[in-house]
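S., here's the first fold you wanted:
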Amino acid sequence: MGISAVVLTHNNEDTLASTLDSVKFCDEVLVIDDHSEDKTHSIAEKSGALVHERELGGNFAAQRNFGLSKARGEWVLFVDSDEEVPESLAREVKEAVLQVDVNGFYLKRQDVMWGKPLLHGETQNVRLIRLAKKGKGQWQRPVHEVWNVTGVVGTLINPLRHTPHPNVAHFLDDINTYSSINAAYLFEEKVRVSWLQIVLYPVGKFFQNYILRLGFLDGMPGITIAIMMSFHSFLTRAKLWQLQQNRG
């Protein structure tokens, strides 16, 4: 079998159908569902995907590695449930997997926030290994996870289409969840933080994304994402500091 697409889900009934429709060019589609309570499961089954129920347990890397273990394709493509593979990228993927001397590929990502493509800020620098040969690497880190693929890794030209955070409330929920997981991971890795870092790092991040990377040119979505990502940095470090105090 050629290409397996793997999609992680949790209560994604609003976006999942579009995601799964965009990966129909793959030979196999697997959905790893974190016990969704909406119509996610039925939408996935209706699309013809193979659905596996598995609790996330605060570890996205473990969830992706589970999907990797279930995939039967020689190549595996990971697509999130708020992403789509445009036809141009689908054609490029089908050509890329014919290469015999490359084990994986970085994919670019075009963020679209509230109907507006983000052309500046930190999102323009996102490069993620999402396509690789099975058996050439495992996912690591419980959040902001990375796929450590051995050997030669190339980069595809056409980007994924990413439509995250339908509203500010959803954005805040995600930030709260991810910062808690990240803080716990950093604490276990014996990373420690000072009050000065808690104060200064978020400020520096905002200045970098909104001013140096021209995020202000993206209008209201640009300032929103710059503030939110700085808040994410603050929460991660504040929660890490609290873990330091509580656990000695």
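And the second, which I think is the more interesting of the pair:
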Amino acid sequence: MENQNHIYPIFDRMLGRKEKEELLGQRSVMIWFTGLSGSGKSTVAIALERELHRRGLLCRILDGDNIRSGINNNLGFSEADRIENIRRIAEVGKLFIDTGIITIAAFISPNNDIREMASAIIGKDDFLEIFVNTPLEVCEERDVKGLYAKARRGEIKNFTGISAPFEAPEHPALTLDTSKLTLEESVNRLLGLILPRVTGKTEK
């Protein structure tokens, strides 16, 4: 008789989010940073990830640069491509959320419709919108990538804040102005919002 030791039963149900969260000892959530280029989204997101990691919480950052150089490297900056960029990000984000991972997204995502779409894909209860409301003049002074200068010279079309509009979120979970708050202050405000949701505990 043939040896049956190499045959394993196939269970009929994939493990769900609840089991993943129990394994990790945390609850997942999407922390979605929106704001102008140079507002401080990525800087705050990276600092937040480090603080959550230090507390033993598993996180993943989805950032404009790392997504556009990989999964979305076939997309440009037309309106249709911007929408598709955010749609794919939201779908990937939902996979992380369903795996119990605290997910941090940092994208300009310049209008309410596009952010509503992301929220609908991920699930409104799991979507925390963080508005990094740093004034345009401060973002332009920083111009960390030289993009504002190019936009002013007409070398970049449809650049948010210069030649394309940015719609401020109507009901963000939190608003941060990095021209007034230190990085530590911004992160502490975020921890106050996030920790009770992901651990059930408040920050001491």
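Why I say that: Strands lie at 30-34, 59-63, 102-106, 127-132, 174-176. The chain has one domain: 25-199.

Talk tomorrow,
H.
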